[in-house]
Structures are given as structure tokens and as C-alpha cells.
Design brief:
Blueprint (H helix, E strand, L loop, with lengths): L2 H7 L21 E3 H10 L5 E5 L8 H4 L3 E5 L11 E2 L13 H10 L1 H9 L7 E5 L4 H10 L1 E3 L4 H8 L1 H11 L6 E4 L4 H7 L7 E4 L9 E4 L2 H12 L4 E5 L3 E11 L2 E4 L3 E5 L11 E6 L6 H21 L3 E10 L5 E7 L6 H5 L2 H5 L3 H7 L5 E3 L2 H9 L7 E7 L6 E5 L4 E5 L5 E5 L12 E6 L6 E2 L4 E8 L11 H12 L2 E4 L16
Parallel strand pairs: 1-17, 2-3, 2-5, 3-4, 5-6
Antiparallel strand pairs: 7-10, 8-9, 8-10, 11-12, 11-13, 11-15, 13-14, 14-18, 15-16, 18-24, 19-23, 19-25, 20-21, 20-22, 22-24
Length: 512
């Protein structure tokens, strides 16, 4: 079934405006007609724009497309060499960070950040900001500073980020999910009762979780007992039939003119060389003909349906969907929703299909720029779906996989690294952009853990991006990937911390 047939079956018309987010009144004289005018608008932009987060990974390259775009980060991944990254030099007293939201709230309260925002004001306008993650406290702090957040409210994002609510939205949109039931679970006997129609092999997800932390694979009582405390405390869970599936990801943007959809990409999940979490996301690939035409058509159509439903719910802007492809029957099911930019955004926004028009984040930001525009969504989606417009890239998210606390005394630099035939790597040159990678013998590495940091189980060490594939056709790490992972790990010098002091760590990844 083609994209058109799926959309026609749902009788999808032009996206309705009745419940769409209210757009601020634009200038009567300024209407941007099509992509060339939109690109020119951002090249001439005078509004201070920011991405505020732990790192600048998710929005890498935005400063090349938008005049006046800056990154405000807690972790200085480029050691002061990135011209558009601002990071406070002095640390001020704060509680231990347990989330990205904590980091962002710290940054907004930091005197150096506040002074930086003031120096870049345009008249009375402080500017607008994007965040990877934020909460209602972030909203209060931003409002106090006069900073507009370029995303729907934290309350709405939290509602939609809830995996239980995601399935309910999918049902309204007509997007298929893996056979499931939503329920609380009192004990193993109760789990068996509510999931009787799903079989013995189950996957349980709590409403919130990141990169596999709260996805549990249950086929017997012993496995249930291992996670019982985390499962029974939830008021409602998503309980799914376990299928033989491969993960995939697709990013899109809800605009006032419809939903723009990027190509489907593969996901790396649960590789022990990269992550300690069995269901944990640890990378992506994008390459021509990665999926059958039928799978691509369905994924695009389902994403459009989901995006149109999000718009009806009052959401606009960037989002990502994980799709699960059943290897036994070829069906494609919705996995989960991320209502934000994600760890896959670096791949999406710098592939050839996006560069030919504009990165997806451009269309997201445009919705907050108080300017009217026209856009042919169907033409963009058609161009972006053509396989000749897709080049091959892979990224690996490298985490600390040992159950140890280790002090980092030396770390590999961010920039372009080169691998030799014997598997040895060496730093080749400084660059802030992954597109500087010229061949599969080179890779762009962005260090997150650096000298003076501590590693704990699940801590992000860095992101490695290269041309070409990092998996085999049967979805296993290929030899090249293993060589790069080993070589990067060997560039870290660490010492195990002997004392078993209680540690407070982030509840999720810094990248997704």
C-alpha cells in the first residue's frame, strides 16, 4: 500500500486549523514563498536564537544555516574551539544533576549565561531558545529572562512523551501498534491475567524512560521478579507482545502547512559493546534502500498521519517516531514518540536530502519566527523520499558499559580521527562538523566525557560519526564498527575509584 493509498484510506484532507496552535500575527508585508526564500530569511536573521542543553550534539550545524544562532552548553565538547558555543567558565553551587532538565535550569540561573544573553539582546528582545529537554521550572526561568521557548509547553510534551499516551494518540491517528494492553500490574499472576491474549513473551515499558532504562523483557516469573519493584509502582504500563523486530527511526516536523517527513533510518539497539542496556538505543544508520519500498511508504504515511493527529492535539514542531519492523511478517508498528529533537537529529539534518532544501530544524524554528510563509509539503516529502537523494552515514553512541566508577585522566579530542589498516587511530584535524569526514577511514568524534569527569555505568563517553555502514545486513556490528569502538575506548585513560560512595547520576542519556 502506497503513502497516498494509506492517507486516502484515512480520508486525510488538508490539516485542520480549528485546534491548531495559535500563530502570532505576522508582518503584513513579509511572506516567505518556498524554500529559497526561507533559506534567505535565516541567512539574514537578526533574532538571537539559542540551543541550550548539556551539549550541542543534537543541533550540530544549526549555526551554519542561521545567522546569530548560538549554543549554550554545560559540557564544552570542543574545548573552547567552537566559535558559536558558549559555556560558563566558573561553576556555581548547585544540587547534583539528575537530568538534562536540571542542567538547563542551572544554566539559566548562571550569572555568566544571563550576562551573555543580555549582551546579545536586540533592543528589548532577548531571543528564542530550543532545549533538548525542559520542564515547568525551565519555562519559569526562561520567562523571567525574557527568553521565548521554541517548543510547545512542557506540560504538553510530558503528556505526549508518556508511552501510554503515545499509543492512544496512535489509535486516533490510525497508526498500528504492536499488540498491547495498557494496565497496572500488581504481581506476576496479575500480569499473566491482563496479558493473556499477548502470549508468554512480553515487553513491558513504563510511561517514561530513556534508551532502554525502563524497557523490560519478561517471559517467566524469575525475569519479572528482577524488575518487579520498578513495574508494580507504576499506575499504568504498556504491555506488548514480544515480536522478532528490528528498530528504525524517522524524524518529522509538524508545520501549519502539514507534516514534513524525513527518510526512515535504521537503529542500533542493545549492542553490549556500546551500551549496558538490553533495549538501549546506541546509534543510527541512514543509507539508500535500507528498507523495502513498501516499508518506506508505510513509515512515511504513518508518520504523516501521526503528525496530523499531533497538530489536532495542539502540537507543532519537531518530533521523532521509533518504528518496529516485524521480521516474521514484514509488518511495521509504532514503537514510541519523542516530541523533540533527538539523538538521531544529527543524521537527519546533515544528509544530502536535507541539505538540498533545508534541515528539518529550519522548518521547526520557522514556526516560531512570527513570519508567514508558503510551502508545498508534498513536493518536499516527495524529494526527500527519493533514494538517490540519500547518502550513507552511521553514528555510534558510546557509553561506559562497566559497573564501575572511573576517573577520566585523559580523553580523545573532538574532531576528525583517521584509522589505519592495523586498526590504530590518530587525531587528524580539528573540525566542528561531521560532514568534514571524507571517507570511511575517517570519523568525527564528539567527546562528552572528558578529563576530570567520572564514568559510571551508562554514562555517555562520546559520539562517533562516519560515512558508510556500521552494521551488517543481518543487523550486527560489522568489523569496522568494532575496530572504531575499541580504538576510541583505548584513547580514554581512566582510574577506577575504589571508594563505594553513593553516586547520583543522570537518569537518562545526554543525547536522546
Amino acid at each position: 500500500m502506497t503513502t497516498k493509498e494509506i492517507l486516502d484510506k484515512k480520508k486525510v484532507k488538508k490539516p485542520i486549523t480549528k485546534k491548531a496552535p495559535r500563530v502570532k500575527k505576522a508582518s503584513k508585508n513579509q511572506v516567505l514563498h518556498g524554500v529559497p526564500n526561507i533559506r534567505r530569511f535565516f541567512y539574514k536573521n537578526e533574532v538571537p536564537l539559542y540551543f541550550i542543553s548539556a551539549t550541542n550534539f543534537n543541533m550540530l550545524g544549526a549555526d551554519e544555516w542561521i545567522k546569530g544562532f548560538k549554543f549554550i552548553c554545560q559540557i564544552e565538547c570542543f574545548d573552547g574551539e567552537h566559535p558559536n558555543v558558549f559555556s560558563p567558565k566558573e561553576e556555581i553551587p548547585h544540587d547534583e544533576f539528575t537530568s538534562i532538565e536540571d542542567i538547563n535550569n542551572y544554566l539559566l540561573q548562571h550569572p555568566e549565561v544571563q550576562d551573555y544573553l543580555k549582551t546579545r539582546k536586540k533592543g528589548n528582545k532577548v531571543g528564542k531558545a530550543m532545549f533538548l529537554m525542559f520542564d515547568e521550572e525551565t519555562e519559569k526561568l526562561a520567562k523571567k529572562l525574557g527568553l521565548e521557548i521554541m517548543f510547545p509547553s512542557a506540560k504538553m510534551r510530558t503528556f505526549m512523551d508518556n508511552k501510554v499516551n503515545t499509543n492512544r494518540i496512535a489509535e486516533k491517528a490510525g497508526v498500528p501498534c504492536v499488540p498491547y494492553v495498557l494496565s497496572s500490574v500488581k504481581d506476576y499472576a496479575h500480569l499473566k491475567k491482563v496479558s493473556k491474549h499477548l502470549g508468554n513473551d512480553l515487553v513491558i515499558q513504563t510511561p517514561f524512560g530513556d534508551s532502554g532504562h525502563t524497557t523490560f523483557f519478561i517471559s517467566n516469573e524469575d525475569e519479572f521478579k528482577k524488575y518487579e519493584e520498578e513495574i508494580v509502582k507504576e499506575k499504568e504500563l504498556k504491555i506488548m507482545k514480544r515480536i522478532n523486530c528490528r528498530g528504525s527511526a524517522i524524524e518529522a516536523c509538524v508545520t501549519r502547512h502539514g507534516t514534513i517527513v524525513a527518510p526512515l533510518m535504521t537503529e542500533l539497539v542493545g549492542f553490549k559493546e556500546l551500551t549496558p542496556y538490553k533495549g538501549g538505543w546506541c546509534g543510527n544508520e541512514i543509507y539508500p534502500n535500507a528498507f523495502t519500498p513498501e516499508i518506506r511508504e508505510k513509515a512515511t504515511a504513518y508518520t504523516q498521519l501521526f503528525g496530523n493527529q499531533l497538530r489536532k492535539e495542539g502540537y507543532k514542531g519537531y518530533f521523532e517516531l521509533d518504528f518496529l519492523i516485524d521480521q516474521d511478517n514484514g509488518e511495521i508498528y509504532l514503537g514510541e514518540l519523542n516530541p523533540r529533537v533527538t539523538g538521531a537529529s544529527s543524521i537527519t539534518n546533515h544528509a544530502v536530502f536535507a541539505l538540498a532544501d533545508a534541515p528539518l530544524f529550519i522548518f521547526h524554528i520557522l514556526e516560531w519566527m512570527e513570519v508567514d510563509y508558503t510551502l508545498n509539503i508534498d513536493e518536499i516529502n516527495d524529494r526527500w523520499s527519493r533514494q538517490e537523494n540519500i547518502d550513507g552515514w552511521s553514528q555510534l553512541i558510546i557509553k561506559h558499559t562497566k559497573d564501575t566508577i572511573e576517573y577520566v585522566s585523559d580523553a580523545p579530542k573532538s574532531g576528525i580521527w583517521k584509522m589505519f589498516d592495523n586498526g590504530h587511530i590518530q587525531f587528524d584535524r580539528m573540525d566542528t562538523h561531521r560532514r568534514a569526514v571524507e571517507s570511511e577511514n575517517e570519523a568525527f568524534f564528539l567527546h562528552i566525557a572528558k578529563e576530570g569527569d567520572y564514568l559510571y555505568e551508562g554514562a555517555d563517553m562520546g559520539i562517533l560519526v562516519s560515512r558508510g555502514r556500521m552494521m551488517t545486513n543481518d543487523f550486527k556490528l560489522n568489523t569496522r564498527a568494532k575496530h572504531w569502538i575499541t580504538a576510541i575506548r583505548n584513547k580514554y585513560t581512566t582510574q577506577v575509584v575504589e571508594d563505594k560512595r553513593e553516586k547520583i547520576v543522570l537518569t537518562g542519556s545526554l543525547t536522546k
